[in-house]
Write a structure and sequence with these properties.
The structure holds two protein chains of two kinds. Chain A is mainly alpha-helical. Chain A has one domain: MetI-like (MetI-like fold, Orthogonal Bundle). The mean pLDDT of chain A is 87. Chain B is an all-alpha fold. Chain B folds into two domains: 124 residues, no CATH class; 219 residues, MetI-like fold, CATH 1.10.3720.10. In chain B, strand 1 and strand 2 form a beta hairpin. The longest helix of chain B has 35 residues. Chain B starts with 7 loop residues before the first helix and ends with a helix. In chain B, 41% of the residues are buried. The chains are: A mainly alpha, B mainly alpha. At the A-B interface, helix 4, helix 5, helix 8, helix 9 and helix 10 of A face helix 5, helix 10, helix 14, helix 15 and helix 16 of B.
Chain lengths: 245, 389
């Protein structure tokens, strides 16, 4: 049975789907966490809808971050943008010291409450790991391969699309994976500024002293993070195997 | 005379800085804390002499940035411009506030922030090009913090709205600051004391390694606000049922769950980096140590640990920077810290209050990163030569 791990993941995924569609099935499990008459399952909105909104926020932010980070990484690794390479590295280091809460809170006065500041904070925070990995991937290509591509008469555009990007793709994907996992957890903080994410469930739990809410909100996010992390990692491995790296 | 050539990054910085100085507003004036503000350009916000000095210095610094100039000169230009901005915004606050009016609020507007960003970028670029030794970087950091400290103590920023928020909360500010630092540093110390031995154990016992790192990885995926919340229950139970627990400050809400949550988040980087560091110790070094008859314990203390030390320090750096940021969340469960001001400010849509919490957090995290990076570089003496080769 080499695929036990896969079976466990499928089971966890099915349990998650079941919980989102029919949360009251799980009521007995969460019942011990609340005082007598308190509601066990989040009752101020649909968990499924919040989960989908949470995922949408993360997907939008990471997709935008991936596009921009990749474009910037390509720019600074070309000869014409080489001047920006050292600075962009330091900026990534500096950016990573900014706490996500601070980024989020500072985005509120500019963009108002709701989804926008959350998207901006997640976007900015998601840029860094992707950019960092794309830089690593694009600057550590084996010189012999680059030499061969040049020798074969490829233009710089062809080299980028057919050699550099495919070879760097596993490392870039690893950056995207990191970004997705960080964003999934950080998006919950967005609910402190009224974004519709699973953080709403957790915060409602904190405010009404309802541990069941906190646990269900937190667990959904954690399970999503683990499943997405593993799925992306599997994709990376498959890609890396195809690249023969 | 050498030909003057355009610097690409400098051109972008120049465009930003000139836009910030001449087009965007420099300061916002509000009659009281809540009403909408009116924006003032550099010329309106500062007394005539001051606006001439500020604009003159900005133009000079922009000229230095736009052409290819020596990195030291660029650094000096950036710092002079930044210092002028810092002094200028204080002068603007005094200038715009009517005599004796305690309700009026003056805060930096977009032009100030754009110029701050542009010259900050120039300074970062110059420092990157100069690649100063770790000790020099710490000296620069101390000098900058010292300058900010002098500005704060001399009262030249007292007219700014963020300091008015501070003035009405002096006592709570320092109490929350203490809590914030205690949370971030205390959990780091606890995580290091537990994490390094755990890492050594994981290195020696392979079977333990995968299991433990898996669990620690899983903890990282739990969103911080949920982990803080989940810990309320067990700690509340302990406080009620374990004699003496409540006396030492363990309670369901407040500092205790925040401390435990930060501790749990901190374990992974410390343990994982200890394992990676120990695994990276060259086999030759270990063989030689065994050959001269060192015991396992002597080998660990005398050979493995010193060689793995820089990697372990890197883990500690990750933890410290991360903890300083995460400690803001503690405010949501009554754990205190700078987050108190951030979330109060968000609740009242009072930007100045948000800044009062966010700015010290960012400064702390930033300073911690610079100091620890310098320490890491000093602890691994061969990295510089390796880079140069």
């Amino acid at each position: 049975m080499p695929k036990l791990a896969t079976l466990i993941r499928i089971a966890v995924f099915l349990a998650l789907v079941a919980f989102l569609l029919q949360p009251h099935w799980f009521e007995p499990l969460l019942r011990p966490l609340v005082q007598d008459n308190a509601p066990v399952i989040y009752n101020q909105g649909s968990l499924l809808q919040l989960t989908l909104l949470h995922l949408r926020t993360v997907a939008l932010a990471v997709a935008a971050a991936a596009l921009v980070a990749l474009a910037l990484a390509i720019l600074v690794t070309r000869a014409s943008g080489a001047e920006f390479l050292p600075l962009s590295r330091s900026l990534v280091n500096i950016g990573q010291t900014f706490p996500p809460v601070a980024v989020l809170a500072l985005a509120v006065p500019i963009f108002g409450f709701g989804e926008k500041p959350t998207l901006i904070a997640l976007f900015l925070y998601g840029l860094l790991p992707i950019f960092e990995n794309a830089l690593t991937g694009l600057t550590t290509l084996p010189p012999s391969v680059m030499e061969a591509a040049r020798g074969a008469g490829m233009t710089s555009g062809q080299r980028l699309l057919k050699v550099e990007l495919p070879l760097a793709m596993p490392v870039i994907l690893a950056g995207i994976r990191l970004s997705v996992v960080i964003s999934l957890a950080t998006a919950t903080i967005g609910s402190t500024v009224a974004a519709k994410t699973l953080g709403e469930v957790i915060i409602a739990g904190l405010q009404s002293n309802n541990l069941a809410f906190v646990v269900q909100g937190g667990l959904i996010v954690a399970i999503l993070a683990v499943l997405l992390h593993d799925a992306l990692q599997a994709a990376e491995r498959r890609l890396a195997a195809r690249m023969g790296r | 005379m050498r030909e003057l050539r355009l610097d690409k990054l400098g051109a972008i910085i120049a465009a930003l800085a000139l836009g910030g100085a001449f087009i965007a507003p420099f300061a916002t004036f509000r009659a009281n804390r809540i009403v909408a503000g009116e924006v003032k350009s550099v010329l309106d916000a500062l007394p005539a002499g001051w606006s001439a000095v500020l604009l003159g210095i900005v133009v000079c610094a922009v000229a230095v940035a736009a052409v290819r100039s020596p990195a030291v000169l660029r650094l000096v230009a950036a710092f002079v411009a930044l210092a002028t901005l810092a002094l200028g915004i204080g002068v603007a606050a005094t200038h715009l506030t009517p005599e004796g009016n305690t309700y009026a609020r003056v805060s930096p507007a977009s032009g100030f922030w754009i110029m701050l960003f542009a010259f900050g970028l120039l300074a970062a670029d110059a420092l990157t090009r100069l690649r100063p030794a770790p000790f020099v970087r710490v000296v620069v950091l101390v000098a900058v913090l010292g300058f900010i400290g002098i500005l704060l103590l001399s009262g030249s920023w007292d007219g700014l709205s963020i300091l008015k928020e501070y003035a009405s909360r002096v006592d709570t500010f320092w109490a929350e600051a203490r809590k914030h630092v205690t949370l971030a540093l205390g959990s780091l110390v606890a995580a290091t004391t537990v994490g390094i031995p755990l890492g050594v154990l994981c290195h020696r016992v392979t079977r333990l390694r995968d299991g433990l790192l898996g669990v620690l990885n899983a903890i990282q995926t739990i969103p911080s606000i949920a982990l803080f919340g989940i810990l309320i229950a067990p700690l509340g139970w302990i406080a009620v049922h374990v004699p003496g627990a409540a006396a030492v400050g363990i309670r369901g809400i407040g500092v205790a769950p925040a401390f435990v949550a930060l501790f749990l988040y901190s374990l992974l980087p410390v343990v994982a980096n200890t394992v990676v560091g120990l695994a990276g110790v060259p086999r030759d070094a270990n063989d030689a140590a065994r050959g001269i008859g060192m015991t396992d314990w002597q080998r660990l203390v005398g050979i493995e640990f010193p060689l793995a030390f820089p990697v372990i320090l890197t883990g500690i750096r990750i933890v410290l920077v991360q903890n300083i940021g995460l400690a803001t969340i503690a405010a949501l469960i009554g754990g205190g810290g700078f987050g108190v001001f951030v979330f109060q400010g968000v609740g009242q849509t009072a930007m100045d209050l948000v800044l009062l919490g966010a700015v010290p957090t960012v400064v702390l995290a930033f300073a911690a990163a610079i100091v620890l990076d310098a320490v890491i570089e000093m602890a691994s003496p061969n990295t510089r030569q390796a880079e140069a080769a």
